[in-house]
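FAQ: What does the model actually see?

It sees only this:
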Amino acid sequence: MTHTPRATAVVHALRPGTGLPLVLLHAFPLDHRMWEDAAALLPGAPHGAAAQPVLALDLPGLGAAQGVPLPDPSLDASADAVAAALARAGHDRAVVAGLSMGGYVALAVLERHPGLVAGLGLLDTKAGADTEEARANRLRIADAVESAGTVDEVLPMADALLGRAARDRGTADRVRAWIGAQPPAGVAWSQRAMAARPDRTALLEEFTGPALVLVGEEDQPTPVAEARRTAGLLGVEPVVVPGAGHLTAVETPGAVAAALAELLARAAAGR
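And it is asked to produce this:
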């Protein structure tokens, strides 16, 4: 009998604590390190209480989750891997926030494991499926990366995903190093998984828990107008970060930390 591999995600505790955790899901083609600056700026608990844990995951095929056999490409598999990793860490409920691809996975978690999601953060992402053109481009990139055996095809994303100010600060060099550390197999798998994702817009209208929609003012892949549509369906006002591009958590970690802290506080209070 042929064994079908299961996708694996790896949990990194960016802040220890007790109670409802904040779970952070990274963008493509990066790993959990993109969240470290924002996590470090999250405020501690008030009045001497224990802080809530902050967990950042490496999604299947990337970061510390590379080198593991992967199933057929699917963000459903990624969502199941996230839920399983959190269960192993002792968490059956969390505030789940994702940026870009991480947002796609967060929505898949909401669909497949709704009881897990106590609060939802969607940063620089969208709920719709790819257009035919975007899907074809993802598959082209996946084939190119796999064929070349390098991630050279996606290295230019280090500049393309950032706003002007972050590029001027040299942030692209840092992002390029993160991309270069990813394996071609994981990059190709992630592209194919994103290409296959369905439209999950209907989930937005059904979700009644605390929600955050955040977007960089200069975000090109998922512009402000897209974030406004997403926020409208969730019944919230979008947070628009001035001077930031697509990787807000890397470019403007303070603004992202403040928004995530507010979401986490509302979820912990059941609002």
